[in-house]
Specification:
- The strands form two sheets. The protein has an eight-stranded parallel barrel, surrounded by seven helices. Strands 5-6 form a two-stranded antiparallel ribbon.
- A hairpin with a 4-residue loop joins strand 5 and strand 6.
- The longest helix is centred in the first third of the chain and has 35 residues.
- The protein is globular, with a radius of gyration of 29 Å.
- The chain is mainly alpha-helical.
- The chain is built from 38 helices and ten strands.
Length: 949
């Protein structure tokens, strides 16, 4: 990989200058414990462990920081080269080497296709034409395309904002280096210019070495808001118009008569500042501040665009005509903003576009000024300002300028880009999804009903049918349930205030700021009706007109809830009350969210994926029966154990008729940095999702109707789940094993998220969030949630009929996108497992008296790993993991090798930290110093593993 050698050389130089030759020698010693395939060696492990044990804390921390910095630099180089490759591929013609169009592709053959084509729009449209997909069918899908990517803040993202800025600067310097080196070859730049860029890189790395990697304090919710919105400011805002251009050009090159998608087909949402499930720091006031912050960002972007247009649109009335309606609008602007007319009328006397833009700029500035004064929803604002109340008003004036230009035969690319940006981001930037856990609504309504005495018995004592009957009755009455003043508990006040805040947000920012209220841990119909009742009390839902400006979205997370979800939704759809509500909507659309994290923690990798697949099919059938359109919201995490993995393959693996041009997906944790930190990577990922949605919606593979296949998957999922739960939930020693041999307790002390690592603070699996659960296994290199149980299920199935069943599984892998995706994700995870390193955690961190209890657990895990690895290799017909993707294989090996020394360092520091009475070397240091060292190792391993949680 180009630039890697240079970066390694520069880092070595920095480390020698900052830490001396002994630091460089120490790192080389520690790296020598790796095999070529990047796993800990049995022979060298004892030697490495002994070496690490002798290190004092300062030396251990320096070594940890060096390895962590190395991983961060590798990530930057990889991302930069991925970006360069995407640019290169976009310039290649969509033909084979002999100049002819490539042959028809099957799903299996896609993996063998030229990598520059698969997953791109430039590949998809010729492919659809070759296999004779009717243009009408393609147009129908394009017209209804609606992609929503929802950004979230999660504890997997451990890198400070300060470090992200430095990473971005190094990426820019690599691009600058390429440019100067290319110029040197052509004779347009000098050698000293190349050396100057290398000197800048060296300076950045040295400054990075002296920068603290850890958050100084626990980030607030607004810190997380600022961090997440950084991607909108730096990359996304400018990438969206390029996505439209790429879509339109690729489409018209093959289907010149088809219409491109609507301007806002790719939309963005955010949970940051709105998701309050288990996060007491997300208050109504914080949500309001988040909306204000988002509007400030997008208004400043529009002001920059208006300045650019003012420079470009210098057309004079002497040489270009304008529409009469533009001149009429200038007269109206003169009456409303005479001060702008006085300032610019003479300067722009013959330049109507510039004069119009001057008025628009002032309106935007007034809108921004007003927004910056809105520190609280009830604050009093000064009057007299002429401002844009909505993004639609701004868009209307931009459209007027475009019509006038088109009438005179002109186009303006910058204006077209701005039109797309305003249609996409409006004056809100990203839609805020409110999310709260179902029991909060239940407790709130129980307390309210108890106080106003409207029920003969306590609400919590009612059965499901009785609850639904009461809730439906309250929903259809015009009488308010909640008095203006109630002596409620703090939790109930917050629940009620949240819904009231949604109403206030929509009044100020428009309906689009918050159209979705998500109920996590949805179990029954009453969970949905409770929120509808709260919406009615906040006057968001009107029982007279049956209209609501917010949709209630159930989030089905556990396996039991996924299995029950079709029944719950059918109960909702058949209610006459709900049918009246749907009848008022332009399209009877219902969003349903599916949780990957908790279902995986609950039942394991294979069972979780299959239950989500089945739930979608069943929900789709129910919705079709009642004439309702479904939009599935996939709550995917960054790791395989939480639904992560390549988005393109994941979308293609969805059951047929469940995408239909619409999808909503969470983008979490370190995924944001890997996908959206650089412009071309961002554009590629947006195109990748668009391609997958269009492809999945246009091509019906028919695997959903093959009942025998599904019966086999039911059997496999059941076997997998049973084996998984026998270890995780039924083994009496497993909880102690988990807490002793993984860094779960130290992870909970990282200042990386405003949200607690446990829902209710209890030391049990039910309270533990899926994110730190996955994060812990990744740190110790077992990655257990992403594969455990799969091997047993496959092996037992094959054992029933070795020849026929193995042949069948191989056929599944070749033909069924869902099964291929499952095996592919497991394969990637298995390649990152290091059993010897994981056993080192057990040997060193388990209490001596507990090791006899824990060793059988580890043996069981090891046997399942070997079983799973063997089955994956047998089904894929390969000799080594990841042989199909050599680049990924090499990247994983490189990272695995360098993570080994970090693992030894982490274990040593955790061991010292956990000693009740510090002895020996550890007695010199306080617990806080040792904790800091341990947290740095967590940081470094996370950077090396990349998809950590």
């Amino acid at each position: 990989m180009r630039h890697l050698g240079l970066i390694e050389s520069l880092l070595a130089s920095v480390l020698q200058q900052e830490g001396g030759q002994h630091l460089v020698d120490l790192l080389r010693q520690l790296q020598s414990v790796c095999l070529l395939e990047g796993k800990a060696q049995s022979v060298a492990s004892a030697e490495a462990a002994a070496l690490v044990e002798k290190l004092d804390l300062n030396a251990a921390i320096r070594a940890t920081r060096a390895f962590a910095l190395y991983f961060q630099l590798i990530n930057i180089v990889e991302q930069y080269h991925e970006q360069c490759e995407k640019k290169r591929r976009q310039k290649l013609p969509a033909t084979s080497g002999n100049g002819h169009a490539p042959p028809t592709w099957s799903y299996l053959e896609q993996s063998l296709a030229p990598p520059e084509e698969v997953g791109s729009l430039r590949w998809l449209f010729p492919h659809l034409k070759r296999i004779n997909v009717p243009p009408g069918r393609i147009q129908s899908v394009i017209d209804q395309m609606e992609i929503r990517l929802v950004f979230t803040a999660h504890p997997t993202e451990i890198v400070r904002h300060t470090i992200r800025d430095r990473q971005r600067r190094i990426g820019h310097l690599l691009a600058k280096l390429d440019w100067t080196e290319a110029g040197l070859e052509k004779g347009v730049t000098a050698l000293w210019e190349v050396e100057a860029v290398k000197a800048e890189l060296l300076e950045e790395i040295r400054l990075w070495w002296r920068t603290d990697e850890l958050h100084q304090i626990k980030p607030t919710v607004l810190d997380e808001v600022d961090y997440t919105l950084h991607y909108f400011q730096e990359v996304l805002f400018d990438a969206v118009p390029l996505l439209h251009e790429r879509f339109r050009q690729s489409l018209h090159a093959v289907f010149p008569h088809l219409r491109p998608p609507k301007l806002d087909f790719c939309q963005f949402g955010s949970w940051v500042g709105a998701d309050r499930d288990g996060n007491p720091s997300v208050t109504p006031q914080v949500t309001w501040q988040t909306a204000v912050f988002q509007r400030s960002i997008v208004l400043k972007k529009y002001l920059q665009s208006i300045e650019k247009l003012t420079s470009l649109l210098s057309l004079s009335l002497h040489w270009s005509n304008v529409l009469p309606e533009l001149l009429e609008s200038l007269e109206q602007d003169k009456l409303q903003m005479p001060e702008v007319y006085d300032q610019y009328a003479i300067r722009y006397r013959q330049e109507p576009y510039r004069l119009k833009l001057a008025y628009m700029r002032q309106r935007l500035q007034n809108t921004l000024q007003r927004n910056q004064q809105m520190t609280h929803p009830d604050c009093v604002l000064p009057g007299g300002l002429v401002y844009y109340a909505t993004g639609a008003e701004f868009l209307q004036e931009l459209n007027l300028i475009q019509r006038s230009l088109q009438a005179s035969g002109l186009t303006c690319r910058a204006l077209e880009h701005l039109l797309i940006q305003v249609a996409t981001f409006g004056f809100i930037l990203a839609r805020l999804d409110i999310r709260q856990e179902s029991s909060r609504h239940e407790q709130a309504l129980a307390e309210i009903a108890r106080y106003v005495q409207v029920l003969p018995q306590d609400y919590l004592e009612l059965g499901e049918a009785e609850r639904c009957a009461w809730l439906l009755g309250e929903l259809q009455t015009r009488r308010p349930l909640i008095p203006a003043r109630l002596p409620l508990s703090e939790a109930t006040q917050e629940t009620v205030a949240t819904v009231q805040m949604v109403a206030r947000l929509q009044q100020e920012f428009g309906r689009e700021i918050c159209e979705t209220y998500i109920i996590s841990m949805s179990h029954a119909l009453s969970d949905l009706l409770e929120v509808w009742l709260l919406l009615k009390e906040a006057q968001i839902y009107d029982p007279v007109t049956h209209r609501s400006s917010v949709q209630v979205v159930p989030l089905f997370e556990t396996v039991e809830d996924l299995q029950r979800s079709p029944q719950v939704m059918e109960q909702l759809f058949r209610l006459p009350w709900y049918q009246q509500y749907l009848a008022q909507e332009r399209e009877p659309l219902q969003e349903v969210m599916l949780g990957y994290s908790d279902s995986n923690k609950d039942s394991g990798f294979l069972s979780s994926n299959w239950e989500i697949y089945k739930a979608q099919r069943a929900l789709q059938r129910v919705a079709a029966q009642y004439g309702v359109t479904l939009r599935f919201f996939h709550g995917r995490g960054g790791s395989v154990g939480r639904g992560g993995g390549p988005t393109y393959e994941a979308i293609l693996a969805q059951p047929g008729d469940t995408v239909n041009g619409r999808i909503k997906i969470t983008e979490q944790g370190e995924v944001l940095a890997s996908k959206y930190s650089l412009p071309e990577l961002c554009l590629f990922n947006l195109e990748n999702v668009s391609t997958a949605v269009l492809q999945a919606s246009s091509l019906k593979l028919g695997f959903d109707e093959i009942t025998p296949w599904h019966e086999i998957m039911d059997e496999l999922a059941q076997r997998s789940r049973q084996h998984y739960r026998q270890l995780i939930y039924e083994h009496p020693d497993f909880l102690d094993f988990f807490h002793q041999v993984t860094p779960i307790e130290e992870i909970s002390q990282l200042q990386i998220s405003s949200r607690p690592s446990r829902r209710k603070g209890k030391r049990d699996f039910a309270s533990l969030r899926a994110i730190p659960w996955v994060f812990s296994w990744t740190q110790m290199r077992l990655l257990l949630p992403a594969w455990y149980g799969l091997g047993t299920a496959l092996a037992e199935f094959v054992a029933q009929n070795p020849e026929e069943h193995l042949k069948l599984l191989c056929y599944f892998h070749a033909k069924w996108p869902f099964f291929r995706m499952v095996i592919s994700k497991a394969e990637m995870t298995l390649a990152k497992v290091d059993l010897k390193m994981a056993h080192h955690y057990l040997e060193q961190l388990a209490q001596p008296q507990d090791k006899p209890r824990f060793e059988p657990i580890f043996t069981q895990i090891t046997e399942e790993y070997q079983r799973t690895r063997e089955m994956v290799l047998t089904i894929t017909r390969r000799e080594r993991l990841l042989d199909e993707d050599v680049n990924l294989q090499q990247s994983v090996q490189l990272r695995n090798g360098t993570i080994v020394p970090l693992g030894f360092l982490q274990v040593s520091l955790l061991k010292r930290l956990r000693q009740p009475q510090p002895v020996g070397l550890s007695s010199r240091y306080s617990k806080s110093e040792l904790l800091r060292g341990a947290l740095l190792t967590i940081n470094g391993i996370a950077a090396g593993m990349r998809n950590t949680g």
